[in-house]
Amino acid sequence: MIVNWFRYSSPVSFYPLAGRLSRAFGVLAAGFTIAGLYIGLVVAPTDATQGDAYRIIFLHVPTAWMAMLIYLAMAFWSALALGFNTRLSAMMAQALAPTGALMAALALWSGAFWGRPTWGTYWAWDARMTSTLILLFLYLGVIALRSAIDDPRRADRACALLSLVGAVNVPIIYFSVQWWNTLHQGSSISFTSAPKMAMTMVEGLLVMTAGVWSYCIAVTLARVRSIIVERERGSGWVASLIARQGAR
Amino acid sequence: MSEATTTAAAPDAASVSAAFGWALARDLRIALRSKAELGVQLMFYVIVVSLFPLATSPSREVLATLGPGVLWTAALLASLLSLPRLFSADFSDGTLEQIALSPRPLPALVSGKMAAHWLTTGLPVAVLAPVLGGQYAMDGTELGILAAALLLGTPILSLLGAIGAALTLGARGGGSLLALLVLPLYAPVLIFGAGAVDALRAGMSAGPQLSLLAAGLLLALVAAPFAVATAVRIALD
Fold this sequence. Notes:
The structure holds 2 protein chains of 2 kinds. By secondary structure, chain A is an all-alpha fold. Chain A is 78% helix and 0% strand. Chain A has 7 helices and no strands. In chain A, helix 2 crosses helix 4 (127-148), helix 3 packs antiparallel against helix 4 and helix 3 (87-119) packs parallel to helix 5 (152-185). Chain B is mostly helical. Chain B has one domain (10-236). The A-B interface holds A 82, 134, 137-138, 140-141, 144-145, 148-151, 153-154, 157-158, 161-162, 164-166, 168-169, 172-173, 175-177, 179-180, 183-184 and B 160, 163, 167-168, 170-173, 177, 180-181, 183-185, 187-188, 191-192, 195, 198-199, 202, 212, 216, 223, 227, 230-231, 234-235, 237.
């Protein structure tokens, strides 16, 4: 069966699809998270060196991955928005930014609570922490620029350009921070020398990653639906939608 | 602008260099009309650099450790403070719109403006820093490396900053918004720039840092004019 993907580049036809997908991924997110937390908190063995404190990685690692992945997705939609001037791509980029910022913040937050018992400090200028912090600043910059420009179409294109400039810079920032860190800190802490994880830990991590991933998709699609309705409120189809469903 | 409107639209080499030269000469002329303003910006740099010993300690070891970082951070802030000067006056009196409408290539025109910005802010800072570095117990070789790193790094600040300056045209929240957009992008320049002197002190060569700064400069020189031109067109929509 051939699906005409361009059909869904229009907000009118994407809106109901996004609703269905959002609900489906919401259910998936709940299922994966419950299973992942069960594996992570009950089934997985206590770590020999870190005790039970290591269990925060079941939240920490997936959120850190998503923080980076969402920036890539945002840059992808931004490139489409800038290149083809498509409305929906810009709306997707707009919807992704707050979730990406949340993931970066969660990664830093959970990292701090993992660092306290294991490293003895909430914050160390570790390369990964520093680059995640800068990533959070990049997300906040995009969100702030969006809210500072009143005309939504202009904000779309300005944010798209900023996201692309950021995307070029993210690898450079990551590399420079890593390099700066090795120059300054020596070998205080390192993940790479950690002992191999037990198989159940890896399973828990993968299931939690699927859960966080589904959550991000569900929330982003729900948010893009709100953005579509808000932006297209002057159009006929939104008026009839509200008439049908009531102004909830 | 009369000569610009009569030239052909095809962006050949002559047209590019003419556009670049025109914008550079115009912005330099405007900047040099208010020498006091340029002086105030340099004084900002001097004062920020002089505050750190007061905030920490006059001991030579502490100052020597802080020195490169302070001189670089202050250079970032000085560049940030002068960024609004790039476009905002031209934007509010309509000149920027005329520049964008001209048949000359916009990336070349904004490159001229960025070059003028660097010549009036980055270059003086790079010249001044070795003098101020004496306050921070840095010796001759270290000061030379510091100046070289600043000469390579400050143009990147002007090029990256111009993107932010153009994006925030007409946006609310002016200066602090610009800081939020631009400062995270400056991080690699700061790391490599301040790292050059640190590497020298650790007994290594500063070559890698300077090479990376030069590579970053080349990348920014190629990409930034197009990004800035796009941002200017977005702002004028």
